[in-house]
Amino acid sequence: MDIDFSPEQELFRATVRDFCDREITRDYVRECDREHRPPTELYRKLGEQGWLGINIPEEYGGSGGGAVEVAILLEELGRAFLDLSFWVFRAVTWGGLAISRDGTEDQKRELLPKVATGELSVCFSLTEPDAGSDAASITLKAEEDGDEFVLNGQKVFTSGFKVSDLAVVAARTAAGEKKHHGITNLLVDARAPGLEWSPIETLGHWPLGTALLTFTDVRVPKSMMLGTLHDGWRDLGVYLRYERLCLSAARTGAAKAALADAIAYSKERRQFDQPISNFQAVAHRLADMQVQTEISEMLVYRYASRLDRGLATPRDAAILKLFACEAYKSVADMGLQVLGGYGYTMEYDLQRHFRESRLGVIGAGTSDIQRNIISKTMGL
Ligand SMILES: Cc1cc2nc3c(=O)[nH]c(=O)nc-3n(C[C@H](O)[C@H](O)[C@H](O)COP(=O)(O)OP(=O)(O)OC[C@H]3O[C@@H](n4cnc5c(N)ncnc54)[C@H](O)[C@@H]3O)c2cc1C
Fold first, then answer.
1. DSSP string, 204-271
2. Which pLDDT score is estimated for 2?
3. Quick one: average pLDDT of 179-189?
């Protein structure tokens, strides 16, 4: 990799990789997947390592790292266990970034140290049944009533809700001239009276899952508003671009794992009296997987380092998200093909990559939406 990591960053990567090799066995990941079980013990261990507070300022119990450190952590965890990496992505995005950046002093003092230890998990609720790609058209209503907001409406696809204590909920607080106006972000207690949830069955990401939330007169103290009243869309843009980095880093790690499995299999599996890696069709497939993974990695760290230097643009985030998520999908698909019929069985992990990689090009802004963002900057 032609990226200048500092010696501290290299050491950090080696430490995380060593932890993953030691603590995260294939059997454990498969068990969590099969049983739809969240890796709670491991998450707590990450808290003990201090990694859940990686981008939380030191004064609130974190280690004050930047985007490059976050990307290293998520990439290495994603290589070992994608859903665990996604759990951490929520801590660093909704805790480390959103609350650190826009929280009140009280919110920061109360919440961030708990995010850093893993005592408190945060998820994100933006999407609604009628507001997906057109996210600014959300209608979940938060009406002011004295010192509180009263929430009514629905959110769909809130991932990780089952392990969360708090949800960052984007709500409509005013009609606004344009749909982007009148949106406010609220920190909502996941077990608040009137907030009901049900799991949504999906193709993958079973350990943490995703949920449908129904809000009926849910009361949220005004002290739990995150950022400014009616002007939450601007902040959401910042969070969503950070989310694109995190998800891309995690999936780049997962793509590397899929590639490693396919290479190992191709050297062991013999047909026509030789390893299948001898066949050019297989070797070329592996070469394409290598190229896609390497470019994803370069884009992840290009974006992370631009973010740390204050140079990142929405276009950069869209290019990264589009490429890295399409690459993981393609790598998983080709990897499964390398394993032939065995790739299609539940005995190997390629099927999980195949299932989970499909979400990348849908969630957090579909590939079409990323292309829209990129093409708008091209003077067409
Ligand atoms: C498993 C899972 C987990 C998720 N987790 C979360 C979460 O934690 N929090 C959260 O808030 N949301 C979450 N989401 C929601 C996710 O971000 C949305 O599904 C996604 O943004 C797309 O919205 P939609 O599903 O309503 O599709 P739609 O917006 O209805 O899109 C349908 C199709 O139309 C295309 N399309 C729509 N508009 C355009 C356009 N302008 N130009 C070109 N093509 C367009 C889309 O690309 C897509 O192919 C999750 C979704 C899933 C499936």
1. S-TTT-EEEEEEEEEEEEGGGEES-TTBHHHHHHHHHHHHHHHHHHHHHHHHHHHHHHHHHHHHH-EE
2. 59
3. 96
| Ligand 1 midpoint to CA 344 (Å) | 27
Residues 70, 76, 77, 79: is their CA dihedral positive or negative?
A: positive
| Tokens 């899929």 belong to residue | 258
Quick check: 223 and 296 in contact, CB under 8 A?
no
Going 42 to 43 to 48 to 51, the CA torsion angle's sign is: positive
Task: Spell out which residues line ligand 1, taking CB within 6 angstroms.
Answer: 124-127, 132-133, 157-159, 202, 205, 210, 359, 362-366, 368-369, 372
User: Nearest residue CA, atom 2 of ligand 1?
Assistant: 157
Nearest residue CA, atom 7 of ligand 1?
Answer: 158
Let me know whether 62 and 82 are in one domain: yes
> What phi, psi does 231 have (nearest 5°)?
-115, 30
Which residue's alpha carbon is nearest to atom 37 within ligand 1?
133
Residue 17: give the domain boundaries: 7-120
> Is residue 294 annotated as part of the catalytic site, yes or no?
no
Q: Which amino acid is at 60?
A: Y
Residue 349 CA, ligand 1 centroid: distance in Å: 26
> What number does the ligand 1 atom closest to the CA of 202 have?
1
pLDDT, tens digit (0-9, with 9 covering 90-100), for 73-90: 999 999 999 999 999 999
The helix/strand/coil state of 166 is strand
DSSP 104: -
**Quick check: is 159 in a domain?**
yes
| Distance (Å, whole) CA 49 – CA 29 | 20
Contact 13, 72 (CB under 8 A): yes
Is the same domain home to 22 and 149?
A: no
pLDDT digits (tens, 9 = 90+) for 190-232: 999 999 999 999 999 999 999 999 999 999 999 999 999 999 9
* Ligand 1 centroid to residue 133 C-alpha, Å: 5
Whether the predicted pLDDT of 252 surpasses 60? yes
pLDDT mean over 326-343: 98
CA of 199 to the centre of ligand 1 (A): 18
Last-in-domain residue among 120, 146, 181: 120
